[in-house]
Design a protein that fits this description.
The complex is a heterotrimer of chains A (644), B (249) and C (227). Chain A has 644 residues and is an alpha+beta fold. Helix content of chain A is 37%, strand content 14%. Chain A has a 5-stranded parallel β-sheet with strand order 5-2-1-9-17, sandwiched between helices. A 5-stranded antiparallel β-sheet of chain A has the order 11-15-14-12-13. In chain A, strands 16-10-18-19 form a 4-stranded antiparallel β-sheet. The two termini of chain A are 42 Å apart. Chain C is mainly alpha-helical and 227 residues long. The chains are: A alpha+beta (644), B alpha+beta (249), C mainly alpha (227).
């Protein structure tokens, strides 16, 4: 099978314009005859639902939270990139495109990434018009900052709550369409399956989380905007409810899953404090602008520190190892996320970790405070320092912060073509749920950009092109496929409720998370991955025989919700391991220890792995089939990333 | 630490509900409040009892999904969200009372879970600028004074958790509603629909059955995001000037 | 419903009425306390009695007094509407609530304070205002003109310890009511600004102590000077 990415031919800068022109249009009077389902109401989902409703389509929007405003896009802190070049510092659409392709370690499509950079400028206009209160200069114009090691200042931000403000903007546009009657909202409703009729997506099966009612919804197109799957690691910076269920069930109905092993580990998170830990909290990357990362120079000193015999401030300058500054003199503490994370892991693996669990490094502001005064540091990072103190009970002005990497974002996702359509016609994936723009590593402030680009400016064109080819007649919900899918969902739920084993759901989720983190996390080896595969298979078996799900289906049942999600994570985990095993190279967030340069940097293999690994589901218990989409680079030259 | 937990249990909206008492031992000071409940729930599950249901999602204080009225205060003793509350705020042997948000407009769904969709309907009544996607002016076309943008951002930080309603002796939603009215009244983009917005959002707030404002300031004191009641004053101004000058009869 | 009734029936409209009537009553109290300071003049009540006559006969003052009656009635009625609405907004109460950690006691008990003040008002009006209007008050003559000797009535009344105590205690309640009501009225009217609010709060804080203290000093002065 050959995967057709449907990238339009022609020069890079003209592809999207030409493609929009060649897309078919739906007659304005006919738009109201088409129904579109949008699952998820984060940046991608809310913006898509609002934009499609504005065009006149009938939209049904679903989210598992109690309100669309709670989607996890809200937690993004840093900012959103756009090639506005307001700062006159040499930014351009091409530069944003180039940085994104390079940052992704050349594992993304040129056409998609260029389009992303192209529409980025319109996103800012749109958000400002909605009343998003971006940071401004005294002259009243928009402020920018440089972010994530970028050489230009192209990041727009709203204090440390950019994701929140952008999401509330999209949510307000969505709310307006709800009031207009063009969007019907289904909060506290979880998508359980996709209904595929004659190879085309025609609807979904949902579970009402309050009543447990399993229902079907028919539509001409289904958009999955359901975010990433970082919670497969149990501990991540994702929200507790973030899950892969919608994407995974779509995968089992024929949508290919691409590059599942590409996960991003963020270097500056608050370390784990004990077994009870339920999630990890991210501290903005901007802290690395002034904080210095270090561990004790020797294992002996580190041990004393862990036992509480000495304090961080007792350690003399010559006994400190500022390992990022030492290894990367030109970028120092500002190396990209994957490099910073991996090096923190190395020093902790050597036994030089600084907290009780041995999995933490210091991020020290002592020198910055000495240089700039405490007041200036307070102005820059006050809220982050407060947050750190709230969580850990330690004062970062007095003692160095402790940080450790944590799973933050998943670059992999459902395979989509240039139109954001999956391998199932009529089924689309937007935002973090798809795989397309970030390659093997996402740059800071690019996730918000992608979610909104997909929802506001890409999908309104591409979904129209698809709908224009369908007859404007209602999708028949009485088709036996709907009943069959509904019945299967009900059986799946019943199966979980019947097990009545002895272990709570989290017991399995935590174990899965540990396997994934240890063997398919920051650094991976062939041996480790093979072990992981066997362990996950065994765990899956144990789950289906010994999990304990309390209560019934016909009520609000949070354990049942969790059990459904963990069941899918168990299957996804195995696929991630397969994907990591298959990719015999290191690139971006995927680091295979066997493939590194002599000085420990990622070693890409462009000859053999410059492709998207898309996986096709073949059935319960069977290994999935790998389908390759070769990546063609016509505009950029593939180079080795170096931050020395 | 060992704690006694007095938790509100209610099977569903129709059930009368009541308090149940549990003991939580081996509570670590580093746990978050919700992690303490996670541990309790795992123990309940292993014993074959229905776990305590509560709303939560991001667990980093921004999504606004977590709630809980803890020892007589929304989000507990600190001015933060429940998910950011840590057990070091409590002492060994303490009895902790946990109740759901109480308001007619926030009916209990189950245990500690309440339905806050009234907030969504208030926003749907007018908490937006009516612009379609595309066709908007360049982002820098209208300069906005930094002080104004900052004030708008102060108001826009609301996470919609409902602590203001829970804290208010009148279960009033003025702080929530005024935060959105203020944000859009301050910004030039919100001017076109300014009057209609104030009128419609206040009308919806009343229709949902929230109480009136007595200016006690409890909402501001308990708001995890520090939203100021100057926003309520601004909403009052917006509303009064709208009703006397708008075209709506 | 016309836009006027719709507005006055909204929570904000009801609050507007509370604020406007409250502020008018604050103005009234200011006038009332200033006039009554004549009790301290030590002229055997001449100035006070002349003032009392002026207050009951001058047409402009009459108009103001009707406004005062309307304000009192409006303030009371709307407080009842609001209290009922506020109670209905929370049908199930909390078992434990620590309001003291987030708000002032007086702000949470304006209804209770108001009710006590209303009871006091009935006693007060019955004792002096009704006497002045319809009661048998002896007259005195100053410069050939007859005046009702309200000073005599006041002096007589405040020789009773229980009444003095009632007045003093009631003024404490009034002080608490004003301590929240003064600044709160401005907040309701939308007058909250970092330039002016501190001044409003300071004036309110002084007012809520000064005016009730002056009122309370009158019965105390009479009680202690009458022996």
């Amino acid at each position: 099978m050959i995967l057709d990415s449907k990238i339009p031919a022609g020069p890079l800068a003209e592809k999207w314009t030409k493609h929009k022109f060649s897309s078919k249009l739906v007659n304005p009077a006919n738009k109201r005859k088409y129904d579109v389902i949008v699952v998820g109401t984060g940046l991608a989902g809310a913006s898509a639902a609002a934009s499609l409703a504005e065009l006149g389509y009938n939209v049904k929007a679903f989210c598992f939270q109690d309100s669309p405003r709670r989607a996890h896009s809200i937690a993004a802190q840093g900012g959103i990139n756009a090639a506005k070049n307001y700062q006159n510092d040499g930014d351009s659409i091409y530069r944003l495109f180039y940085d994104t392709i390079k940052g992704g370690d050349y594992r993304a499509r040129e056409g998609n990434v260029y389009r992303l950079a192209e529409v980025s400028v319109k996103i800012i206009d749109q958000c400002v018009a909605q009343g998003v209160p971006f940071a401004r200069e005294y002259g009243g114009l928009l402020a920018n900052r440089s972010f994530g090691g970028a050489q230009v200042s192209r990041t727009f931000y709203a204090r440390g709550q950019t994701g929140q403000q952008l999401l509330l903007g999209a949510y307000s546009a969505l709310s307006r369409q709800v009031a207009n009657g063009k969007v019907k909202l289904f909060p506290r409703t979880e998508m359980m399956d996709v209904v595929v009729i004659d190879g085309q997506a025609k609807g979904i099966v949902t579970r009402n989380l309050i009543t447990g009612a399993v229902e079907t919804h028919a539509a001409h197109a289904v958009l999955l905007c359901t975010g990433g799957y970082g919670n497969v690691f149990f501990l991540s910076t994702n929200a507790m409810g973030s899950n892969v269920t919608a994407a995974w069930r779509a995968h089992k109905r024929g949508a290919f899953f691409a590059n599942p092993c590409f996960t991003q580990i963020h270097p500056t998170c608050i370390p784990v404090s004990g077994d009870h830990q339920s999630k990890l909290t991210l501290m903005s990357e901007s802290l690395r602008n002034d904080g210095r990362v270090w561990v004790p120079a020797t294992v002996e000193i580190a041990e004393k520190l862990r036992k509480g015999q000495i304090k961080a401030n007792d350690i003399k300058e010559e006994d400190r190892d500022y390992f990022l500054e030492r290894k990367y003199p030109s970028f120092g503490n500002l190396v990209p996320r994957d490099v910073a994370s991996r090096n923190a892991k190395y020093v902790c693996d050597e036994g030089r970790g600084v907290n009780e669990t041995g999995e933490a490094v210091f991020l020290d502001f002592r020198d910055a405070i000495k240089r700039d005064t405490r007041k200036i540091i307070e102005q820059k990072y006050g809220n982050l320092f407060d947050m750190y103190k709230q969580i850990t009970g330690e004062d970062p002005y007095e003692n160095p912060m402790m940080i450790y990497p944590a799973v933050h974002y998943t670059m992999g996702g459902l395979w989509v073509d240039y139109n954001l359509m999956t391998t199932v016609p009529g089924l689309y994936a937007l935002g973090e749920a798809n795989f397309s723009e970030h390659g093997a590593n996402r740059l800071g402030a690019s996730a918000l950009m992608q979610g909104l680009a997909d929802g506001y400016f890409v999908i309104p064109y591409t979904v129209g092109d698809y709908l224009a080819q369908l007859a404007p007649t209602k999708v028949d919900e009485n088709h036996p496929e709907f009943a069959r899918a509904k019945e299967e969902v009900k059986q799946g739920i019943e199966r979980l409720l019947k097990i009545n084993g002895s272990k709570p759901v989290d017991y399995f989720h935590k174990r899965l998370g540990k396997i994934m983190w240890d063997k398919c996390g920051m650094a991976r080896t062939e041996i480790g991955l093979k072990e992981a595969k066997a362990e996950i298979q065994a765990l899956k078996k144990e789950f289906w025989s010994n999990v304990k799900v309390m209560g019934t289906n016909e009520e609000l049942n949070q354990t049942l919700e969790k059990a459904n999600r963990v069941a899918d994570f168990l299957e996804l985990g195995e696929l991630m391991v397969d994907d990591a095993l298959n990719r015999n190279e290191s690139c971006g967030g995927h680091f295979r220890e066997e493939y590194q340069t002599p000085d420990g940097e990622a070693l890409r293999d462009d000859e053999n792995f410059a492709y998207v690994a898309a996986w096709k589901y073949l059935g319960e218990g069977q290994d999935e089939e790998l389908v390759k989409e070769e990546l063609v680079f016509e505009n950029v030259k593939l180079t080795q990333r170096s931050y020395k | 630490m060992k704690l006694t937990l007095k938790i509100w249990r209610q099977k569903n909206a129709a059930d009368k509900g009541g308090f149940a008492t549990y003991t939580a031992d081996q509570v670590s000071k580093d746990m978050s409040f919700l992690e303490m409940l996670d541990v309790l729930n795992d123990q309940l599950t292993e014993k074959g009892e229905d776990p305590v249901h509560f709303d939560h999602d991001c667990r980093e204080g921004i999504c606004g999904m977590c709630s809980l009225y803890i020892n007589g205060k929304p989000h507990g003793p600190q001015q933060t969200t429940t998910c950011q509350l840590h057990m070091r705020s409590f002492s060994d042997g303490e009895t902790i009372t946990i109740e759901p948000w109480r308001a007619k407009a926030f009916p209990v769904v189950k245990d500690l879970v309440v339905n806050r969709s009234a907030f969504d309907r208030i926003i749907q009544a007018g908490g937006y600028v009516s612009v379609n996607t595309g066709g908007v002016p360049d982002a820098n076309e209208i300069p906005i004074p930094k002080t104004i943008a900052d004030l708008a951002m102060d108001a826009a930080q609301c996470i919609g958790c409902g602590a203001c309603v829970a804290a208010c002796k009148n279960a009033s939603a003025m702080l929530f509603t005024s935060a959105k009215v203020s944000q859009l009244a301050l910004l030039p983009q919100g001017q076109v629909e300014r009057k209609a917005r104030a009128e419609k959002m206040v009308a919806q707030m009343d229709a949902e059955g929230f109480g009136a404002c007595t200016n006690t300031g409890a909402c501001e004191a308990e708001c995890p995001k520090g939203i100021s009641i100057t926003n309520i004053a601004r909403m009052n101004r917006e509303y009064f000037s709208a009703v006397v000058s708008s075209e709506n009869i | 419903m016309s836009w006027v009734t719709k507005t006055l029936n909204s929570t904000l409209g009801k609050k507007l009425i509370m604020a406007l009537t409250g502020l008018f009553l604050i103005l009234f109290l200011t006038g009332h306390v200033s006039g009554n300071l004549l009790l301290f003049k030590g002229d055997g009540g001449q100035a006070f009695n002349m003032y009392a006559k002026f207050m009951t006969t001058n047409p402009a003052v009459k108009l103001l007094s009707y406004l005062t009656y309307i304000s009192v009635i409006g303030h009371v009625i709307y407080s009842i509407f609001l209290s009922r609405q506020n109670k209905a907004a929370r049908p199930v109460n909390y078992s434990t609530s620590k309001g003291s950690t987030n708000s002032a006691w007086s702000s949470r008990n304006m209804g209770v304070l108001g009710t006590i003040i209303l009871i006091f008002l009935v006693v007060h009006l019955q004792g002096f205002w009704a006497q002045m209007h319809w009661g048998q008050v002896p007259t005195v003559t100053y410069a050939g003109e007859d005046y009702k000797d309200l000073f005599l009535i006041v002096n007589g009344a405040f020789k009773q310890l229980w009444l003095v105590a009632l007045y003093v205690i009631s003024m404490v309640f009034l002080g608490f009511h004003l301590s929240h009501g003064f600044a709160s009225a401005f907040q309701t009217l939308g007058l909250n600004h970092k330039k002016y609010s501190p001044a409003i709060q300071t004036v309110g804080a002084i007012y809520c102590i000064l005016v009730p203290a002056l009122f309370a000093s009158m019965p105390l002065y009479i009680y202690f000077t009458s022996y």
